[in-house]
Structure formats: structure tokens, C-alpha cells
Amino acid sequence: MEEINATPRKNLGQLLVVSSLIFGMFFGSGNLIFPVHLGQMAGSNWFLAALGFAISGSLFPLLAILAVVVTKSDGLLDFARPLGRHFAAIFLILVHLTIGPFFATPRTAATAYQMAVASFIPKHFSTLGMLLFTGLFFAVTYLAATHQNSLLKIVGKYLNAGFLTLLAIVFLVAFIKPMGNLSQAPTATYQANATIGGLLEGYNTLDAVALLALSVTLIHAIRGLGYRGRALTKLTAKAGLISISLEVLIYFGLVMLGALSMNQFKLSANGGIALSQIVGHYFSSVGTLLLGALVTLGVLTTAIGLVCSFAQDFHKLFPKVSYRAWLRTTTILSFLVANAGLDTIISWSLPILMLMYPLALALILLSLTVSQRPYAGTVYKVTIAFTILPAILDMLANTPATISGLAPIQRLLTLYHTAIPFASLGLGWLVPTLIGFTIGIIWGRLRWVGQRGTLPESNR
């Protein structure tokens, strides 16, 4: 017992390394690209838009980490277990396929290739170039993941240091010599509801979903430093706050950078193009190399965390298959999917993401509020029952036109967007989830009190 409850001596270096690990686990390509594009769209309302983005892109991921720590979950299977083993298993599989080999993991390599390599090779060699680059990228990812005991050292000390140094250079030069002022007119979406627009844009990072899985790797790494129980929770909370604070500063800087760029460039099709234009404006071809190195370092840390978490959780769900075998499986699948190209990956994954995000946020809410209550199972089940239907409708609304354009589905979606608050904004799950949460608490507590009242005095 003494070993279990032992608390390591406070070490500022360990706190900073764990903070860096948290940062590196989920700050990838999307966290660079989306804020810049948001700044271009928000224009003079960049600050309000950045505030919304920070809530969904920083606060929600921090809450996801704390939810895993508070529930003492050792993986997604444990985290969703109050909903029943079968639902927990389905949730684990869907989350890991979404943030793993079907979308987020291959997106890391595809984005790195597009921003670091594509502009330097002829178009007729692009397929071969993509194949070679993604092969090397995932070979490095696999090697790092097979040395999990060195994860803190690899991510916390080296990759993040290079990433932040390169990003600091970009910020320093851009703000010393700004491209203009911040008075550019915002697009229609950001004229009246800039904060909501920024909040929704932050969903594109997928960090709140990803951190439910990546936190497993994080907790294993912290335990390797000797932390247990309350000491682990306190260190995670402190490190998370440091990491999130840094991320918020970066988000605000990137959004401002995007807003300033509208003095020199037209609104870009995506943040990758915008960021390339901005860096190229200041550093020319050297800037392109700088940006490519920055993005590659950032997404590599994310890929390492994703493949480790996938292998850990799938090994628990299917223990007859070894951790190394699952690691090879997710790495190879990610390599294959990455070669389909970034646009294809996004189009495949969007509908399932619209299904998963409401479920993940509902589970975070439940974990942080009622997970320790004796009637938690009832609250979990009622809340998710109210969440899943609007989540499915959001998924249908984002399917290809061949599905969403069918007359019965169109009528259903029209009714949904008209009758449910915020549904037209993609937040139709919010009010039903809160209603289900309230009903679940009342019903669960009444059932619990009733069951206690029927117990013999000796069993109370």
C-alpha cells in the first residue's frame, strides 16, 4: 500500500515534460490550419471568433483528459462501461477507427506531405512521392511507438521543442512586420455570430474525441514517473492547464495572423493554402521548407499518440491479438488510407464525425458530474438515449447528396432543423442531451432512493 500511495517529489521538470506531452499528443495539422482560415473569415471580428475556437479546441480537450482521470478509466472501454459492455465496445471501435486509421492518423501524413513536399516535386511524380513520404512517415511513427518507455523523451523533449521554436519564428517575423491592419470585413457567418462560428470551427480539430483515447497513453506515461491516485490527478490537471494555456495563445496568434493576411491575399479555400501563402510572403521558398518542417513535426507527435492508443485499447478488447500486432495493423492501414489523399479522407469521415462528437461530449459531461454516483448507470443511459437520435440526424445531414438528397431524408432533416433548437447550426444534440441528463438524474435518484427503502436495515 505504501508503494501505491507514494507521491513522488515535486519536480518542475516533470511537470513541464508532461505538459509538453499533452500538447504534442493533440496539436497537429488541424490545429494549425483551421485557426488561420478562421481568422481570414472572421476579419475584424477575429477576437470573438478566436474565443469560440479556444473553447471547443482547448477547453473541451482539457475536460476530456480530466474526465478520463476522474473516472480512473484505463481506456475507452472502461470510460464508456456504465452504458454496458456492448455499447462501450462499439464506442471504442468507432472512436478509434475515426481518430485512427480511417481518418485522423492518415490525415497527419497526408497533410504533412501536402504542405512539406508536394510543391517541390512535379505533379506527374505526386503519386510516387506520396507513397514514399507516407511510408517513411509511418515507419518513424511505428519505431517511436514500439519504444513506449521513451515516449516522454521523444515527444516531450525533442519534437515539441523543434515545433514550438519554428512556430515562434513565424510569429515573431509576422508580428514585427504585419501585412496590414485588422479592419477587414468578416464573411457573412462571422458578422453577427463570430463566437458561435469559431466554436463550430473548433470542432474540426476533433481533439475532444481524440483525447478520450490519447489520455490512456498519457496516463501510462505519468504512472511511469511514479505518480498514483490524487498525485496523478493533480499533476495531470496542472500540466493540462499549462498545455491548454499555451495552445490558446497559439490559437489567438494564428487567428490574428489569418485576419492580417487578408490585406495581402484573397480568402483561401482552406487554412493550409492560407498558411503557405503567409509563410511564403515572409520567407519565400525557405518559408515553404520552414512550414513543412513545422507541420511535419507537429503531426508526427499526434500520429505517435494515436497509434499507441489504438493498439493499447484494441489489445484490451481483443487480448488474443498482441499489442505489437495491433500497432502494425493501425500503422499499415493508416499508410494505405493516407495515399487516398486528404480530400478523400475528409469526405469519407465527415458523417461519422458528426455522429461521434455529440456522444463524446455527452460522455465527458457525465464523467465529470455523476460518474461516482450510485445511480450513474441510469443517468448515463438516459442521457445517451436522448443524444443519439440528433447525432444520427447530424450524420445524415453530412452524408453525400446521394443519401442526404433522398426525399424522405430531406423531409426528416427539414423537420429536425426547424423543430430542434440549434439544429441548423449542427448543434441539435445540445438541448436533447441536457434534457436527457436532467431526466436521468431525477429518475436515477428516485430509483436509488426507492431501492434503498426496500433493503433490510442490515444491508443499508
UniProtKB/TrEMBL annotation:
It comes from the Bacteria. Keywords: Amino-acid transport, Cell membrane, Membrane, Transmembrane, Transmembrane helix, Transport. One of its GO terms (biological process) is L-leucine transport. InterPro entries: Brnchd-chn_aa_trnsp_Livcs (IPR004685). The chain crosses the membrane at residues 12-34, 46-71, 83-104, 124-145, 157-176, 208-227, 239-262, 282-311, 323-342, 348-370, 382-407, 419-443. It is found in: Cell membrane. It is a multi-pass membrane protein. One of its GO terms (molecular function) is L-valine transmembrane transporter activity. One of its GO terms (cellular component) is plasma membrane. Pfam families: Branch_AA_trans. Belongs to the branched chain amino acid transporter family. Component of the transport system for branched-chain amino acids. This is Branched-chain amino acid transport system carrier protein. It comes from Levilactobacillus parabrevis ATCC 53295.
